[in-house]
Amino acid sequence: xxxxxxxxxxxxxxxxxxxxxxxxxxxxxxxxxxxxxxxxxxxxxxxxxxxxxxxxxxxxxxxxxxxxxxxxxxxxxxxxxxxxxxxxxxxxxxxxxxxxxxxxxxxxxxxxxxxxxxxxxxxxxxxxxxxxxxxxxxxxxxxxxxxxxxxxxxxxxxxxxxxxxxxxxxxxxxxxxxxxxxxxxxxxxxxxxxxxxxxxxxxxxxxxxxxxxxxxxxxxxxxxxxxxxxxxxxxxxxxxxxxxxxxxxxxxxxxxxxxxxxxxxxxxxxxxxxxxxx
Length: 278
Description:
This protein is mostly helical. The protein has helices at 6-18, 20-48, 63-81, 85-93, 95-101, 106-135, 145-176, 180-196, 209-216, 219-231, 247-274; strands at 59-60, 235-238, 241-244. It has a 3-stranded mixed β-sheet with strand order 1-2-3, with no helix packed on it. Strand 2 (235-238) and strand 3 (241-244) form a beta hairpin. The two termini are 32 Å apart.
């Protein structure tokens, strides 16, 4: 088995750990968001809904727990939508031209960068998850050790599929654009609607019909559905609403992300094969 993508992977990971300020900010931003915005919102929701009766036999989780899954999803979204930024600099500085001129298959370029993106997404997700538990997030409550292990594996598989898809979108944008400002503008334009038209901060049931329909095809919605199923369970209530996930629904969400990732990989591969770097 050939590992031609490995040098690309190692180079991307070295660059990730070498730039200390970027590394620190990528970890601190979601943690601070969870610590300040999450704690403030959770306090308000818990106070407003304190008079609501608890549904008998249903696990009641705080808004902080509900929101933590959304913060993880949003972090993976924003991180990977800007993941192609380094490739744009490689292209503008002539480094990409040298890589393209080498015998390395162009698919290995995508696989290497995508593998690094998955690794970084796993590290970020684990840090947010651990920090959330320290703050009082109740993940994996009532699960057996075996169920917890399986849930963690499922959690990382969902993250991997989603990270691959959006990293490929970012790479395609980076290869098709020459301006860093234009790349940043398009990335922001894509990420903000995806974030707010999802179940990151609130259940889909509270959205207007049209927005709810859009949210159902939003990949971020399917990622967060998988995260909540793996970390909280298939049946719980939060902020006065009962949430039920069937195994069929969660499997559909995972397949949706996998197919989406494959499609985006193919599109990115065709873009890489056609690109001419001078």
